[in-house]
């Protein structure tokens, strides 16, 4: 299957730079110079990745991200932002972006992020998740690996691609503690120090969707001084 990537970027110099380097990865590229046209292309075509600028004419990147997520839950989105304001970055993740890079960014880091996302499109975490575990149940939480579906107490839970990958990894390995660095490497597919907050943001969003009380989580627990783990089966039998 062709690896199709959509670049939604209004700065032609940046878009040209992205296209130049992404073609070296044998990617099939589409471009859009404003938010409205970019959203239209994202919804009408099949892509393995959308590279989305935050500051766009006609419709800003945050709105584009939100509208894409309403229609395509698992389409990976990498956001680019010229702003240093942490609020914008966190909001982007809250709206469903899988990752972000702040401008100016290094091409090496961009390529590493993109390669990691492309490797993971439509793939289970092969070395970490036992593919025989098609369906798992934990105290009212049902996870269907094949359908990438999550049901909590008979209610369908909408997760982004990264949220599902995180949950699948944890649930397939109950009781195993992961550091934030482990999770970056396994779920995002790259190792960059300083990006552990990306993991934290996704964990917080995931907890807000599956935990009755995110402050006292039942499923995804904090392992102090280490990172996170999924509750063991025995804890659901109490």
Strands, helices and their partners?
Layout: E1 4-8, H1 12-23, E2 28-32, H2 35-44, E3 49-53, H3 61-71, E4 77-81, H4 86-94, E5 99-102, H5 107-120, E6 135-138, E7 141-144, E8 149-152, E9 155-157, H6 161-172, E10 178-179, H7 180-188, H8 196-210, E11 220-223, E12 227-230, H9 233-236
Parallel strand pairs: 1-2, 1-3, 3-4, 4-5
Antiparallel strand pairs: 6-7, 7-8, 8-9, 10-12, 11-12
What can you see in these coordinates?
There is one protein chain. By secondary structure, the protein is of the alpha/beta class. The protein contains 9 helices and 12 strands. The chain has helices spanning 12-23, 35-44, 61-71, 86-94, 107-120, 161-172, 180-188, 196-210, 233-236; strands spanning 4-8, 28-32, 49-53, 77-81, 99-102, 135-138, 141-144, 149-152, 155-157, 178-179, 220-223, 227-230. The strands form 3 sheets. A 5-stranded parallel β-sheet has the order 2-1-3-4-5, sandwiched between helices.
